[in-house]
């Protein structure tokens, strides 16, 4: 059969590694698409490994504009997808995995989305898990019979298997922008440089990191769409779940070092939809803080001078420029541009090494934190420094906890089981809850200048632009 000479409207890029049984079913599903086969091409990238079973699997793609790229040795999914995208001829890229069995109108829906002016730049499609009870329906090509709800279905990215109706989560859609069913233009893909190949053979995060960069490269706003009917089914294949989770955690930590910002702080500990909820919650509070000029560092810096051990101090709040602090001072100030010594972090997973500071001082900002984040912030800060100062002024915004003496004393008692806690009244400022470890923090004896610690990870910071998107 001769291939058409007209250029395709979209290119499907699909890596495969030793899963020919999945690839065969996925290619068969692509031959049943409502989009005419001359309008799309399929690029399969075999990422090394054994060739057993692939001749039979590829035969299932008869009638497609199918190209197969063979990598001599395994390079990992990032390299395989980049290689496929480089060879793509269409202006639109649809990334599937070999285990992404597609419903008949999948490609038509991706193409239709990107044909509408004003639609978001990236379309995320649904991926249903499949229980063994539904495997016969998939083998028979009966997509209508495959369950869409637990226990034999549902998209595991969402707590209930379905996203919230409001669509607010799409403001941080990159957090769950997994590459098993997603599309964007080849121009956007090339603009950000494709997948980060440094992840190598390890499992996961390469797609989340890519679409974080895509989001940052686009104007502020909602850059992701979601189509619940643009659906694939995740085919069963062998997984080493324990190894995958360990590799994914390491990759999240690697990305957090590249991007020391609120979003990646959460992704080192909380994944998926819950991470999006936390990110959007704190984004709104931070915007409120900046808008009201709350959490002012200046008065605290003046009143606490001489009361803090050492000079290696991290200040958390706003108004760095008006605080009188030296330019080398380390801050988390959302009202100031990010840079070598100013990060946009909550402090629950700081990028500095243990024992590198003498004190961490949070001026009212800690009052925004939910209890789990506050506990995590205190624990992380006590590893960094010999003491933590939680400053509570008379200022307040609707998102802050109360700062009356009774509330603060309760918080002192609540922390007393884990650290030495002292509540002081400071004239002209308010109250300060001072926390110190019951035992010296690991590495506390080491003298590591704070500005040196901050310089250790500047490469991914873009001066003048916040890594937190509103």
From TrEMBL:
Chain intervals for the UniProt region annotation (Disordered): 447-470
One of the Pfam families matching this protein, by short name: Glycos_transf_2
InterPro entries: Glyco_trans_2-like (IPR001173), Glycosyltransf_2 (IPR050834), Nucleotide-diphossugar_trans (IPR029044)
Boundaries of every Glycosyltransferase 2-like domain copy: 11-127
Highest rank taxon of the organism: Bacteria
Compositional bias segments (type: Low complexity): 447-460
Name of the protein in question: Glycosyltransferase family 2 protein
Organism: Micromonospora aurantiaca (nom. illeg.)
Native organism taxonomy: Bacteria, Bacillati, Actinomycetota, Actinomycetes, Micromonosporales
């Amino acid at each position: 059969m001769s291939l058409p000479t007209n250029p395709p409207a979209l290119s499907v890029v699909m890596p495969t590694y030793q899963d020919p049984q999945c690839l065969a079913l996925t290619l068969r599903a692509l031959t049943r698409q409502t989009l005419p086969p001359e309008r799309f091409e399929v690029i399969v990238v075999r990422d090394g490994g054994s060739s057993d079973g692939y001749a039979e699997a590829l035969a299932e793609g008869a009638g497609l504009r199918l190209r197969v790229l063979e990598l001599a040795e395994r390079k990992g999914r990032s390299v395989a997808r980049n290689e496929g995208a480089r060879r793509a001829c269409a202006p639109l890229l649809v990334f599937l995995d070999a285990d992404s069995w597609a419903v008949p109108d999948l490609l038509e829906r991706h193409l239709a989305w990107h044909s509408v002016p004003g639609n978001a730049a990236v379309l995320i499609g649904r991926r249903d898990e499949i229980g063994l009870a539904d495997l016969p329906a998939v083998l028979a090509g009966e997509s209508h019979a495959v369950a869409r709800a637990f226990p034999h279905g549902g998209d595991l990215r969402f707590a209930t298997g379905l996203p919230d109706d409001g669509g607010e989560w799409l403001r941080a859609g990159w957090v769950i922008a997994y590459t098993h069913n997603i599309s964007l233009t080849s121009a956007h893909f090339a603009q950000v440089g494709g997948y980060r190949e440094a992840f190598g053979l390890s499992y996961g995060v390469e797609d989340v990191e890519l679409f974080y960069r895509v989001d940052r490269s686009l104007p502020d706003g909602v850059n992701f769409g979601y189509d619940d009917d643009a659906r694939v089914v995740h085919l069963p294949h062998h997984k080493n779940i324990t190894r995958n989770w360990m590799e994914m955690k390491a990759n999240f930590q690697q990305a957090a070092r590249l991007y020391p910002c609120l979003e990646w702080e959460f992704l080192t500990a909380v994944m998926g939809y819950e991470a999006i909820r936390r990110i959007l919650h704190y984004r709104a509070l931070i915007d409120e803080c900046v808008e009201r000029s709350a959490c002012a560092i200046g008065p605290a810096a003046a009143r606490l001078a001489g009361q803090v051990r050492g000079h290696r101090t991290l200040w958390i709040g706003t108004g760095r420029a008006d605080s009188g602090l030296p330019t080398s001072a380390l801050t988390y100030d959302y009202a100031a541009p990010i840079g070598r010594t100013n990060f946009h972090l909550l402090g629950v997973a700081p990028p500095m090494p243990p024992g590198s500071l003498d004190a961490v001082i949070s001026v009212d900002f800690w009052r925004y934190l939910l209890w789990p984040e506050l506990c995590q912030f205190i624990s992380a800060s006590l590893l960094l420094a010999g003491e933590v100062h939680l400053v509570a002024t008379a200022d307040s915004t609707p998102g802050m906890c109360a700062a009356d003496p009774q509330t603060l004393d309760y918080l002192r008692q609540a922390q007393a089981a884990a650290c030495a806690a002292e509540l002081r009244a400071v004239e002209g400022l308010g109250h300060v809850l001072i926390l110190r470890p019951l035992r010296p923090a690991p590495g506390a004896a080491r003298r590591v200048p704070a500005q040196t610690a901050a310089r250790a990870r500047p490469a991914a910071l873009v001066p003048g632009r916040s890594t937190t998107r509103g």
